[in-house]
UniProtKB/TrEMBL annotation:
It comes from Arctia plantaginis. The keyword Ribonucleoprotein does not apply. This is Acid phosphatase. The chain crosses the membrane at residues 33-52. PROSITE patterns: HIS_ACID_PHOSPHAT_1 (PS00616), HIS_ACID_PHOSPHAT_2 (PS00778).
C-alpha cells in the first residue's frame, strides 16, 4: 500500500517515482474523507481490486494539469444603434457590465468545475497551485471572482469571517493596451492590416448584401459589415435578455439571418493561421510553457490555470485547435485543455473539451485533426508551435520607441 500522507501524492505519482500498484492513486479531498477513502482502499485492495478509483466520476489517474478558458457571464449591451427604441434606456450598471444573472452563471460554473474535478482540484485554495488571468474588462474580472467563489469556497481552516462563505483569491490582468494574451487588445500593425483585408473580403460576400440593405434601412445607419452585424446582434440579444421587446422589423432577421455573419465576425479575428499567430499565439505560448513545466516536473505545484476572457478568445483558441466550424460561445462557454501523463511509458497526452455555455453538464470532447487519439503532447506541441511567434512584437512590425 503506497498511499502515504503526503498531501499531493495522488496527483503527482511520478514525482518522486513510487512503486505502482493498482491502489496507488486514491484521491484525497480532506483529512476526514481521506481516512474513509484509505480504509475503503485497504479493504478493496484486500479484495484484490480498487473499486473506488473505478467508480468516482471524472477521476483520472493520468491527469496532471488543467487549463480552463471561459467567457464572462451575461452582460448589458455595449452600444446602441440609431433607431434603437432603447437608446436612452437606463442600464443600472452601465454599458457592457456583468448582470446579476451573469454573476450567478459564473458562480454556478465554478461549482460545476469543483464537482467535476473534485479529486483533482484540492478543496483548499493554495496560491502555489492555481493561477488566474483575466482580461482587464470589469465584466471578465467580476466573472473570474464569482467563478472562484464557486470553485474555492473557504474550507473550515480558511474561514476568516464567521458569515463570509468567500475568500479572496488573486486575479491577474494586464492593462488592455499591453494584453496580447487574453483580450488581444495590444496593438499589432501586421495583424490589423491582415484583419482589415480579411474583413473586407467577408463584407463583400454577395450572400450578405440583402441582409445589409435590410439592416441599413431599419437601423437608420450604414450597416454593411459583418462586424457591425456582430455588434447589432449582441445588442439585440442583450436587450432581449433584459426583457425588452424588440422592434418588429427584427423578427425576420434576428437571430436567424444575423447569426452566421455574427459568428463569422468573431472568427475573422483569427480566420487563418497568419491571423492566429498574432491573435492567439501569445496565449498558446503560455499554454505550451505550462505544459512543458509540468512535463519536465519543473513546476509540480501548479496544476490549474484559469483564464477569464471573451467570446473572441474562445473562438480564437477553437480555431487555433484546427476547428473551422463557426460557433457562438454563449455566456460562460469554456474550452478546457488537460495534460495527462501515461505513467506506463512516461509520455504525455492532451485532452480538449468544449462547453458552449455555463449550463452544460457533460462537456464535448474535441478531437483535433492534427493529432491521433490519444493526442500526444509531442504532436500537440508541434501544432501550436507553428502558431507561436518567437518575437511577437517584431513580427507585428510594431516600431519600438
Ligand atoms: C434617422 O437618422 C437621421 C439622422 O441621424 C434622423 O434625422 C432621423 O430622424 C432618423 N430617422 C429615424 C426613423 O429614426
Ligand atoms: C490570412 O489572411 C490574410 C488576409 O486575407 C492574408 O493576408 C494572409 O496571407 C492569409 N494567410 C494564410 C496563411 O492564408
Ligand atoms: C504510450 O501509451 C499510449 C496510451 O496507452 C499509447 O497510445 C502510445 O502508443 C504509447 N507509446 C509508446 C511509445 O509506447
Ligand atoms: C450548445 O450545445 C448543446 C449540446 O452540447 C446544443 O444542443 C446547443 O444547440 C448548443 N448551442 C449553441 C448555441 O450552439
Amino acid at each position: 500500500m503506497e498511499y502515504d500522507n503526503d498531501e499531493n501524492t495522488w496527483r503527482r505519482p511520478s514525482i518522486p517515482k513510487v512503486e505502482r500498484t493498482t491502489c496507488q492513486q486514491i484521491p484525497k479531498r480532506s483529512t476526514s474523507v481521506a481516512v474513509v477513502v484509505l480504509g475503503l482502499a485497504v479493504l478493496s485492495c484486500l479484495l484484490g481490486y480498487c473499486v473506488l478509483s473505478e467508480t468516482l466520476p471524472h477521476e483520472s489517474k493520468t491527469l496532471r494539469l488543467v487549463i480552463i478558458l471561459f467567457r464572462h457571464g451575461a452582460r448589458t449591451p455595449v452600444k446602441t444603434y440609431n433607431s434603437d427604441p432603447y437608446k436612452n434606456y437606463q442600464w443600472p450598471d452601465g454599458f457592457g457590465s456583468l448582470t446579476n444573472v451573469g454573476k450567478l452563471q459564473l458562480y454556478e460554473l465554478g461549482k460545476k468545475f469543483r464537482s467535476y474535478y473534485t479529486n483533482f482540484i484540492l478543496e483548499d485554495y493554495y496560491e502555489k497551485d492555481v493561477f488566474i488571468r483575466s482580461s482587464d474588462r470589469s465584466r471578465c474580472l467580476m466573472s473570474a471572482y464569482t467563478f472562484l467563489a464557486g470553485l474555492f469556497p473557504p474550507t473550515e481552516r480558511q474561514m476568516w469571517h464567521p458569515e463570509m462563505q468567500w475568500q479572496p483569491i488573486p486575479v491577474h490582468a494586464l492593462p488592455r493596451e499591453l494584453d496580447n494574451i487574453v483580450s488581444s487588445t495590444k496593438p499589432c500593425k501586421v495583424w490589423s492590416e491582415m484583419y482589415k483585408e480579411q474583413l473586407a473580403a467577408h463584407d463583400a460576400d454577395p450572400k450578405f448584401t440583402e441582409l445589409f440593405d435590410y439592416l441599413t434601412k431599419h437601423t437608420n445607419q450604414t450597416l454593411r459589415s459583418i462586424l457591425d452585424t456582430d455588434f447589432l446582434y449582441s445588442t439585440l440579444l442583450t436587450e432581449q435578455e433584459a426583457g425588452l421587446k424588440l422592434p418588429d422589423w427584427t423578427k425576420t432577421v434576428f437571430p436567424s439571418k444575423m447569426r452566421t455573419p455574427f459568428m463569422l465576425s468573431l472568427a475573422t479575428l483569427s480566420y487563418n493561421e497568419s491571423l492566429q499567430r498574432f491573435q492567439i499565439g501569445p496565449l498558446l505560448k503560455e499554454i505550451r510553457q505550462y505544459f512543458d513545466e509540468t512535463a519536465v516536473h519543473s513546476n509540480v505545484d501548479r496544476t490549474l490555470y484559469i483564464y477569464s476572457g471573451h467570446d473572441t478568445t474562445i473562438v480564437s483558441l477553437w480555431r487555433a485547435l484546427g476547428f473551422e466550424e463557426l460557433i457562438e460561445p454563449e455566456y460562460g462557454a469554456s474550452v478546457v485543455l488537460e495534460l495527462h501523463e501515461d505513467v506506463e511509458n512516461e509520455s504525455f497526452f492532451v485532452k480538449t473539451f468544449y462547453r458552449n455555455n455555463s449550463k452544460i453538464e457533460e462537456p464535448i470532447e474535441l478531437k483535433p485533426k492534427f493529432c491521433d487519439d490519444p493526442c500526444t503532447y509531442t504532436r500537440f506541441k508541434d501544432h501550436v508551435s507553428k502558431l507561436i511567434p518567437d518575437d511577437w512584437e517584431a513580427e507585428c512590425g510594431n516600431t519600438r520607441s
